[in-house]
Amino acid sequence: MPGIVERSRKKSPWLFHINTGSCNGCDIEIMASLAPRYDVERLGCVLVGSPKHADVLLVTGPVTRQMYPRLMNVYRQVPEPKAVVVVGSCATSGDVYAGSHVIEGPVDVNIPVDVYVVGCPPRPEAILKGVAEAVQKKFGG
Amino acid sequence: MTLAVMFPGVFVLSLLYSGFDRKLHARMQRRVGPPLIQPFYDFVKLMNKERIIPAAASPSVFVTVTALAAASSMLGASVLMTNLVMEASFVGDIMLVMYLVLMTAALTMIGGSSSGNPYGAIGFSRRVGMLLGYEVPMLISLLIVSYRSGLTLSFYDMVAAQSIADVVLAFSPGAALASLVFALCIPAAAGVVPFDIPEAKTEVAYGYLIEYGGPYLGLLKLAKEVTNFTLSLLFFTLFIYAPQSFPVVSAYNEWVNLLFILVGALAVYMVTITLPRTLFARMKLGQALRFYVWVWALSLVSAGLVMVGY
Amino acid sequence: MSEPKEIEFEYSRLVVPFGPIHPALKEPVHFKVTVRGEEILDVDLVLGHAHRGIELLAQERNILQNLYLTERICGICSHTHTTCYAQAIEEVKGIQIPERAAYLRALIFELERVHSHLLLLGVMAYEIGYDTLFMQIWNMREAVLDLFEEVTGNRVHHSMNVIGGVRWDLTPVMALRVSRVADGVEDAQRRIRTAFMDRTVKKRLVGVGVMSRADARASCLVGPTARASGLTMDVRKDDPYAAYSELKDDYSVVVSDGMDAMARVDVRVRELAESVNIIRAILGRLPPGEIRLKESPMRAVKVPEGEAVSRVEAPRGELIYYLRTDGNEGLRRLKVRTPSQANFAGIRQMMVGGELADVPVILASIDPCMSCTNRLTVVDEGAGRQMNVGLDELRRRRASTS
């Protein structure tokens, strides 16, 4: 019954958040989206603690040299089908850190990205919209 | 035959109860929360994901454990439900149910330790510690119920005995302590805060669940949810439900009776599983075990009281 | 530092890696925790995962661009970084900011302290499994973030500071809203205090991560972490900056003798009340006038050669900036010593002897900001020593050149 599977994937996207060296602004806004005001759980999203449980990978931060192998490792551990959402301007393009010699490029140089949520930091509503769009794009019809 | 039919029924009910639990938890935190059928979406999604087995794990153990855990928990719940619906029972079925619940816990522990991840090993050792704490008091309180129902080991006879005696065990002296003991053991058996030490999210990154993804995780979560359902149902029917005490209900036909039981079990689920999860912080292993020493003592006291005749 | 315990049998030791990706840690840091059962025997710390080369980048950019660069060293204490930086530059240029600007800087400073402490208290509740308290506290924090958005235009990374003053002014309507939020915070902190007195919470926090006063001083802890071990140190009182010299009598430094994680949490809760006092004093005494010096950005960027040391009291402790300008538009050197860097020195002592379950609790109690903590240390392998410069040395050098 393909309809049910698709619908379930859209209704239950589990998020895993990885910080590749960001300033914390975006990470705080991601945590704020759990708070009662934005409440991401009503969309069925749960912030899980292991990449193996996740559907959507939220990446923040310009990829620092130390975090680069970890990012690749985590990306491989997320089971298919998966979506990657890049949160924040420094993950999208480097922001103020562009040109630094310890940054391994923005995220899309390393892994395929589905949705970019720009802002420094983006608001929780923008992050929610980014997740919803990624889910629609990757899992939906 | 009825047993096989019960499997889907148990599946639907357990996931529904889990949905109620998440909704109530969210509402108590002043959030909106997921829709009630969210666990169904979660299950279907998980079953359709890619299967990943860690390289350091032993594949046969790793995989079979999940299927066995789900199967044994569903069997336990189905036995219980079948006996309720058919109003029949066989000797020792209550022991079978308890054994299956214990088996589920043991299987999940083995799965965690077979994953080759140090967090899984820690989860395993913590779970062993917790088992020491809650398993025996639960058994003692069940034996007390059996004693009060005329030393029978069959489930429906116990329920029937209460209805004849017209006494609700949870409110009668002696056995009231036994019901308290059982209620205190439920959060640990269900693995919720304050006793979710083996699968603490912030300490050991889910403990034994850490390496499971996709369909394996789906089966393990199902096992957990069915266990919770079994425990609440057991508590309600053995300790609170006595048809004679609710004459309004027993006057109707058996389907209304069944509905009443299910609603009562849901209420027990909310009180023993959702409320502690929302209101308390997690304990450390040493503190939890010290708490369960008191529960042991309580259970022995209540056994003593019942033996003497109260 | 405590000596490692005597271990008779090796087989029961397990090295558990914590991080850099872990549900308890929102930021990357790596611990190798050696445990036997649940007891912690040793902790090894590996920092540097968020190293972005900011100090090197600062040398390639001009003064104004560095204002936005330093802001993004950390998302939680961004205003403190820009204040410290702006003060250092103003000191080199020898300019004095208007009084109203100083008061507004202090106002946003205290609001940031409130939001940072609320954040930490919520995170602490989350670490001990108390999700409900985490949700409630972060809900209260949203009111403060709304206020930031009204006054400065953004919830995080306010960019309130410019060289020579602040960017936005406070209208009377906004001032009223600020005072109402301050009342809400005061009410909230009372409720938070009660919540943290709950029995299950106390069991997790009391007696965990103990650090005596002598050890705290020897490890050079700063901020609320040090104040919870009995040390009275607060840059706002010891070395006043912005408007704090005039606000001396409106608040008191919160010190506790608990020495454990509970004391650190308690210090921060009480500091919320003190911040509210400061905010009320600022609103009451806000002087009229300009909010920034009238200077075009082209003129602002030209800074004479010189060096400066600037200190502020960030929510986590003492933040020190040293910078040296090159006479053109850029910096020859920027050195940042963040409070989290200092507080990490005490981690090993706090953790050894505790339980594995205490690791996230202890970590959260020192309020680490990993993105502030990544610096390079130059090690001279030949001579076998590290090249460190102390604060007195910096002061001496500044006095000799300027």
Describe the overall structure.
Chain A is an alpha/beta fold and 141 residues long. Chain A has 5 helices and 5 strands. Chain A has a 5-stranded parallel sheet with strand order 2-1-3-4-5, sandwiched between helices. Chain A starts with a helix and ends with a helix. The mean pLDDT of chain B is 78. Chain B has one domain. Chain B has helices spanning 2-28, 38-47, 59-86, 93-113, 118-148, 155-165, 175-190, 201-204, 214-240, 247-250, 254-279, 285-308. Chain C is α+β, with helices and mostly antiparallel strands and 402 residues long. Chain C has a single domain (54-340), classed as Orthogonal Bundle (Cytochrome-c3 Hydrogenase, chain B). Chain C has a 3-stranded antiparallel sheet. In chain C, strand 7 and strand 8 (331-337) form a beta hairpin. Chain C is globular, with a radius of gyration of 22 Å. Chain C starts with 12 loop residues before the first strand and ends with a helix. Classes of the chains: A alpha/beta (141), B mainly alpha (310), C alpha+beta (402). Chains in contact: A-B, A-C, B-C. At the A-C interface, strand 1 and helix 2 of A face helix 1 and helix 5 of C.
Would you summarize the structure shown here?
Helix content of chain A is 35%, strand content 15%. Chain A is an alpha/beta fold. Chain A has a 5-stranded parallel beta sheet, with helices on both faces.
Task: Name a few traits of the molecule.
heterotrimer, B: 310 residues, mainly alpha, C: 402 residues, alpha+beta, Cytochrome-c3 Hydrogenase, chain B, three-stranded antiparallel sheet, 16 helices, 13% strand
The quaternary structure here is heterotrimer
How far apart the termini of chain C lie comes to 39 Å
The number of domains of chain C is 1
Class per helix and strand makeup of chain C = alpha+beta
The number of strands of chain C is: 10
Report low-confidence residues of chain B grouped into runs of 5 or more.
Answer: none
Query: Can you count the beta strands of chain B?
Result: 0
CATH class of chain C: Mainly Alpha
Characterize the largest beta sheet of chain B: strand count, sense, and whether it forms a barrel. none
Beta-strand content bin of chain C: 5-15%
Stretches of chain C where pLDDT falls below 50 for ≥5 residues?
none
| Helix percentage of chain B | over 70%
Rg of chain B, Å, rounded: 19 Å
Query: What does the average pLDDT of chain C come to?
Result: 81
Kindly report the spatial arrangement of strands forming the biggest sheet of chain C: 1-2-3
- Total helices of chain B: the number is 12
